[in-house]
UniProtKB/TrEMBL annotation:
<dbReference type="InterPro" id="IPR007813">
    <property type="entry name" value="PilN"/>
</dbReference>
<keyword id="KW-0175">Coiled coil</keyword>
<feature type="coiled-coil region">
    <location>
        <begin position="64"/>
        <end position="91"/>
    </location>
</feature>
<dbReference type="Pfam" id="PF05137">
    <property type="entry name" value="PilN"/>
</dbReference>
<keyword id="KW-0472">Membrane</keyword>
<protein>
    <submittedName>
        <fullName>Pilus assembly protein PilN</fullName>
    </submittedName>
</protein>
<keyword id="KW-0812">Transmembrane</keyword>
<keyword id="KW-1133">Transmembrane helix</keyword>
<dbReference type="InterPro" id="IPR052534">
    <property type="entry name" value="Extracell_DNA_Util/SecSys_Comp"/>
</dbReference>
<dbReference type="GO" id="GO:0043107">
    <property type="term" value="P:type IV pilus-dependent motility"/>
</dbReference>
<feature type="transmembrane region" description="Helical">
    <location>
        <begin position="20"/>
        <end position="43"/>
    </location>
</feature>
<dbReference type="GO" id="GO:0043683">
    <property type="term" value="P:type IV pilus assembly"/>
</dbReference>
Amino acid sequence: MAHINLLPWREAALKAQQKAYFTILAAVGILAFVLVLMVNFYYQAHIDGQNSKNQYLKNEIAQLDIQIAEIRTLNDKKAALQKRIDVIEQLQRSRNVGTQVLDEIAKIIPSGIYIIELEKQGNTLQLVGKSESNNHLANMIRAIELSDLFADATPESITADDGSPKLLSQFKMKVKIKGLVNDPNAVLASTTQGGG
């Protein structure tokens, strides 16, 4: 029987297998690299898109912050103007206060009470007078509390006058005038500084 040498064929087949193996390996490596690159590009595109959306939102938020700051300054100006309007309205109401106070005092003082001294400080009246009895004084305090112009009648002192033939008692009382500004000039100055 003839001997056939198969070693070169085996070596060629082995080389062909190795070549095919390395070719497939290189193809799989290139395919994996391309796949990784595509996935990377895909996610990078998503990240870039999200970053552009975030930048857009940041720009819009910055514009809204500017608008909010403008609204706050407008609200501050509005509040300052409202304070000025309130002060002007109070000053308008208190323009004829002297006449109104004297007219109201004439209405609320019952017979048997005599006012000796009347002093106005801001929105407070200091009354000094004489009373024939404490009942007259209590009636006057009730009338003050029911008055539309006066409030918070506070007696400071009631002293008996032994030297008087009618036994009159002397009293001091503080009464608040409703709706008056304590110091109109100070309020105007503060609103001017606050709203200027």
